[in-house]
Amino acid sequence: MAAVPKIRISSGRRDRRRAQTFPSPRLRNQIHCECGELVLPYHVCQNCGRYRGRKVMKVEEDY
Ligand SMILES: [Zn+2]
Questions:
Q1: For residue 50, what is the DSSP state?
Q2: Looking at the DSSP assignment, which residues form a beta bridge with residue 39?
Q3: Residues flanking ion ligand 1, Cβ below 5 Å
Q4: Angle, alpha carbons 46-50-53 (nearest 5°)
Q5: What's the pTM value of the predicted model, to 2 decimals?
Q6: How far is the CA of 47 from the centre of ligand 1 (A)?
Q7: What's the CA gap between 34 and 14, in Å, rounded?
Q8: In percent, how much of the chain has pLDDT > 90?
Q9: In a domain, 35, yes or no
Q10: Does residue 20 belong to any structural domain of this protein?
Q11: Distance 50 CA to ligand 1 centre (A)
Q12: pLDDT tens readout for residues 28-42
């Protein structure tokens, strides 16, 4: 049996709750890479392949 809420959450309360993590929880915590790209923490930059200032991944770069 599915979990059924005892009390209905009003649309305003629901929307306020969702607004806390809008647009997406993953996009809220972003840092800038050395190349200027926005990257998620603890992730290798997809643009230049660097992680914390060190090159750790091969990326096709356009020169
Ligand atoms: Zn980068």
A1: E
A2: 31
A3: 33, 35, 37, 45, 47-48
A4: 145
A5: 0.49
A6: 5
A7: 38
A8: 22
A9: yes
A10: no
A11: 6
A12: 788 888 888 888 888
